[in-house]
Amino acid sequence: MTHIEFKAIPRRKLVDEVLDQMQTLIRSGRYKSGDKLPPEPELMKLLAVGRSTVREAVKVLTHAGLLEVCQGDGTYIRSSSTGLAAVSQTLTPKNYAHILEARRILEIEVTGLAALRRTDADLEVMRSFLNQRNDALEKGRYAEYVEADISFHIAVAQAGKNEVLLEMYKVVAESLKEMLSQLILDTRQYEDNTVYHEAVYAAIEAGNSDEARKSAIQNLDAVHRSQVYHF
């Protein structure tokens, strides 16, 4: 007997659904640049979710450059963009390509150096940020995830013990934060590359420079696939 091929239904987090709805409202033109979002209690009621879910969604959309939070006033639509196809006011699609090129050159090198020069203290810092990253991603705390992910990579660069490369990487990291925030908005298509991060850490811990570089390349290739899909 031939069975119809079924696919597992992915479990989605509440914050994923909220992000989808808010982006749809912006794409459809329901909310335009400069419009003010309803206050937090009203959003909680409209979306039938808790305060933490609303706040997490707003954080992610703010990091991505789609919302602007004005303390004491409210939250406003920063861009009348069409969702993920749009870019922030400070970065263009061309610049994204340049950022990824610079990241690739720097990250492969600092990861290889980290495997040769890391200390036990360096490993503790990297492991801590990696655990925070993985936990935040699993629980849908995307703003926290972005911060921890970038912090992990900076910790790797610090372990490479080259101050010039470290400072160069920090400059790139600022742009990576905004780019990653935009990529993760599409929770259905975002490619979870945790396995590559774990492989990077394992190779650095083992002192295997070649394997560390290889794992860094695999991670960067995964990022490139997401970047091509969205931009």
Automatic annotation (TrEMBL):
InterPro entries: GntR_C, TF_FadR/GntR_C, Tscrpt_reg_HTH_GntR, WH-like_DNA-bd_sf, WH_DNA-bd_sf. One of its GO terms (molecular function) is DNA binding. Residues 12-80 form the HTH gntR-type domain. The keyword Glycoprotein does not apply. Keywords: DNA-binding, Transcription, Transcription regulation. SMART domains: FCD, HTH_GNTR. The keyword Transferase does not apply. It comes from the Bacteria. PROSITE patterns: HTH_GNTR. This is FadR family transcriptional regulator. It comes from Paenibacillus oralis.
